[in-house]
Amino acid sequence: MRAAVLIWVFLLCLCLPCAAETKIEPAYPVPQYIEKLLEIAVNELGYTEKNGYSKYGEWAGNPQAQWCAEYLCWCVDQVDQALGTKLLKKVYPMYSGQNVGLRWFLKQGRYVARNGHVEEWGSQWYVGEEETLSSGSYVPQPGDWVFYTVDGINTSHVAMVEYCTVDEKGVIRAHVLEGNLPDRVQRNSHELKDPRVLGYGTPRDIVDTVMRYGCEGVKVQSLQDKLVYLGYLDQQYATGFYGPSTTQAVMKFQQDTGKEPTGIANHHTQLTLSEVYAVKYWNDDSNFQVVSDEAGG
Predict the structure, then answer these.
(1) At 54, is the secondary structure helix, strand, or coil?
(2) Helix, coil or strand: residue 166
(3) Please, which residues bridge with residue 111 across strands?
(4) CB-CB contact of 172 with 192 (8 Å)
(5) Where are the alpha helices (DSSP H) in 189-243?
(6) Fewest C-beta in 10 Å: which of 44, 132, 197, 288?
(7) For residue 285, what pLDDT is reported?
(8) What pLDDT digit, counting tens, does each position of 42-100 carry?
C-alpha cells in the first residue's frame, strides 16, 4: 500500500498548479457546516504521521491505517462536535475501505462521475436538464470529496475540494486538501479532465443517473415512489432496489409514453416520468389541505 501511495505522489507532482490562476466563485451557496469543515481541515495542514501512526487512524480504530479517508471523516466528526450537527454517516460517509466512500455517495444519489458515466448505471445529467453531463465539465464545489484511481476502476485515494481556479488558457483546476500524502496533510490540485479522477461525492443533490436492474439507492427509491403514485408499481416493491418488478413497471410506462420498452430508466424516461408525475400531483386535490374561510379567520 505504501508503494502505491508513493506512486500516487509522483503522479500528482506531474500536475503542479500553474501561475495566473483566478479563483472561481462557488456555483452553489456554501453552508456554515462546509465553511467549518474546510476551516478544520486547513488547520490540520502539516500534520505528519509518526512511524505509520496517525491520530486519524487511531480515531477510526486502526492507528496504522492508510489515513486519507480517516482524515476527512475525522474532520467531519469535529464539525459535528463543534456545531452540534449530524453530518457523519448522513451527509458524508464514515469509512476506511477501498471504494466504500464512492459507493456510499452513489447510493445517496450524490456522486458525480468525472466522465459523466457511472459503471453499472449509465450516463448522468444535471437534475431536470436535457443535456447529458460531458466528461470533465463538472466544476467541483467546496466540500466535495474527490475519488482518485490508479487502475481506472478502483479508488486509491480521496481528498476534499477547497476551491477551484481557472487560468488564462481556460484550464480549470480543483485545489484540494488531502491526508496521507505521502505521510502528512497537504494541499494539492488537479485539472478537471485528469483521468486519475473517478468522480466526486457531493453534499448536494445535483445530478441524476440512468438506472437499471441491480441499481440501489435513494434515486431508485424516488423513481419507484413515482411509479407507485402513477399506478405502475405495487407499493411492496418500492424498496430502493431496482429489481424485476421495477423493470416491468418502467417498461409499461415507456410503452404508454411512446418510448422503446427497455426497462432501463434512461435520461428521457426519467424526465418524462417526472413531468407526468408532476402534472398528476398538482391536479390531485387530495395532496393539498383545503382551509375553509372559517378556519382561516
Answers:
(1) coil
(2) strand
(3) 201
(4) yes
(5) 218-229
(6) 288
(7) 81
(8) 999 999 999 999 999 999 999 999 999 999 999 999 999 999 999 999 999 999 999 99
Q: 4 to each of 10, 72, 86, 173, 194, how far by Cα in Å?
A: 10, 20, 33, 24, 18
Q: At what angle do helices 218-229 and 267-282 cross, to 10 degrees?
A: 50
Q: List strands edge to edge, sheet with 117-118.
A: 117-118, 122-126, 207-209
Question: For residue 268, what are the contacts with CB-CB under 8 A and spacing of at least 6?
Answer: 259
Threshold 0.85, pTM exceeds: yes
Residues 175/185, Cβ–Cβ less than 8 Å: no
Least Cα distance to 161 among 121, 198, 189 occurs for 189
Q: What's residue 123's pLDDT?
A: 98
Residue 87 CB neighbour total at 10 angstroms: 19
Q: Hey, what domains does the chain have and what are their CATH numbers? A: 2-208 (no CATH), 210-283 (1.10.101.10)
CA gap 246, 223 in Å, rounded: 9
The CA distance from 158 to 68, in Å, is 6
How far apart CA 75 and CA 21 sit, in angstroms, is 28
pLDDT attached to residue 287: 80
What was the pLDDT predicted at 289? 63
Q: 180: how many CB neighbours lie within 10 A of its CB?
A: 27
Q: What is the C-alpha to C-alpha distance for residues 90 and 20, in angstroms, rounded to an integer?
A: 38
Instruction: Give me the residues of the chain with pLDDT under 50, please.
Output: 1-17, 291-297
Q: Where are the alpha helices (DSSP H) in the chain?
A: 2-13, 32-43, 55-60, 68-83, 100-107, 218-229, 244-256, 267-282, 293-296
pLDDT of residue 288: 72
Given a contact cutoff of 8 angstroms between Cβ atoms, the answer to whether 91 and 205 are in contact is no
